[in-house]
Design brief:
Order of helices and strands: EHEEHEHHEHEEHEEEHEEHEHH
Bound molecules: guanosine-5'-diphosphate
Strand order of the largest sheet: 3-2-1-4-5-6-11
Low-confidence stretches: none
CATH class of the largest domain: Alpha Beta
Structural class: alpha/beta
CATH superfamily of the largest domain: NAD(P)-binding Rossmann-like Domain
CATH architecture of the largest domain: 3-Layer(aba) Sandwich
Largest sheet: 7 strands, parallel
């Protein structure tokens, strides 16, 4: 019987993952932070707790004794990590060390493997000199979020060397209508829907020339499940391989919402630019495609359309 434990079960990825596993008949436990505004999806057994409470984390893992442990929780945005670098190190770095240690403990106690999947991030590559990035790209983060994720990524490999089925999905940006508006894609789609509905207004963004590889979040969750169930633990880049600028995303979203002359609606305000920002992040997911049989199901235009349509619907 599969018993899954998901940290970050109320987030974008956690909610898609929980829905998927519940529909497969998996017993799903989720770590929920007090104060989380969204409840976990139906069928999830929630456990109130906090990543900063390392002893509590260990107790939870020992109690649930999962066969699959998906670690998705942590500081979720680069922007937030600049405000809170030490919290970022604790929640997105140190907590992973404790979870891995606890998973090894469960494995030893029960004599059955615990498949540990860590949601890593393209931010571990920093501002890479080569493009696209793959599993051999040097780990060289440029922000506190990337630095914490880099530490976690190393710890996953170290736990693997100690006999844990520990895998990391190196996830490039992945979006959906469940993205909070602190991320540029959702900020744009909410803004586009508002402008279309009101017939007026501007989209005020930061660096319009920043380029990202934006995929569809449920596809990335599918990659995490494939990592858990693959016969050997590996680290794999998960990305579409397509690069688009913030400007491209904004123009596509405004157009989808039916706003005429989209380019005239964009303003770049230095208040929204970052102290350091990777200019081009694009992943090469050849390993995931060939070894895990993974492939994205939605391209850039389909992601934009799904998010804009959702936000238009909310305003109606
Ligand atoms: P990230 O790649 O995980 O940091 O995801 P974000 O969605 O927060 O940012 C993606 C890119 O959009 C980064 O290069 C940001 O600098 C850029 N960007 C441009 N304008 C904005 C904005 O108004 N808000 C945010 N969050 N990002 C912006």
């Amino acid at each position: 019987m599969t018993v899954a434990l998901i940290t970050g079960v109320t987030g974008q990825d956690g909610s898609y993952l929980a829905e998927r596993l519940v529909s497969e008949g998996v017993t799903v436990h989720g770590l929920v932070r007090s104060g989380d505004r969204t409840p976990p999806v139906p069928g999830v057994r929630s456990h109130l707790g906090d990543l900063a409470d390392l002893d509590g984390l260990r107790r939870l893992v020992l109690e649930v004794a999962p066969t699959e442990l998906y670690h998705l929780a942590g500081i979720s945005s680069v922007a937030q990590s600049w405000q809170e670098p030490e919290q970022t190190a604790l929640l997105s770095g140190v907590a992973v060390a404790r979870l891995l240690e606890s998973a090894l403990e469960v494995q030893r106690a029960h004599g059955a493997p615990v498949r540990f999947v860590h949601a890593s991030s393209a931010e571990i590559f920093g501002d890479p000199a080569t493009s696209p990035q793959d599993e051999s790209t040097p780990i060289a983060p440029v922000n506190p979020y990337g630095a914490a994720k880099a530490y976690a990524q190393h710890m996953v490999r170290i736990a693997r060397d100690r006999g844990l089925h520990a895998a990391a999905g190196i996830l490039f940006n992945h979006e959906s209508p469940r993205r909070p508006s602190s991320f540029v894609t959702r900020k744009i789609t909410q803004g586009a829907a508002r402008i279309a509905t009101e017939g007026a207004g501007m989209l005020t963004l930061g660096n319009l020339d920043a380029r990202r590889d934006w995929g569809w979040a449920p596809d990335y969750v599918d990659a995490l499940v494939r990592l858990a169930r693959h016969h050997e633990p590996i680290d794999a880049v998960v990305a579409t391989g397509e690069l688009h600028s913030v400007r491209d995303f904004a123009v596509a979203a405004l157009r989808r919402a039916g706003v005429p002359d989209p380019g005239s609606r964009l303003v770049s305000d230095p208040a929204f630019t970052r102290p350091a920002d990777a200019a081009r992040m694009v992943g090469d997911a050849t390993l995931a495609r060939t070894v895990l049989g993974w492939a994205p199901t939605r391209d850039f235009d389909a992601v934009v359309a799904a998010m804009v349509d959702h936000d238009l619907e909310l305003l109606r």
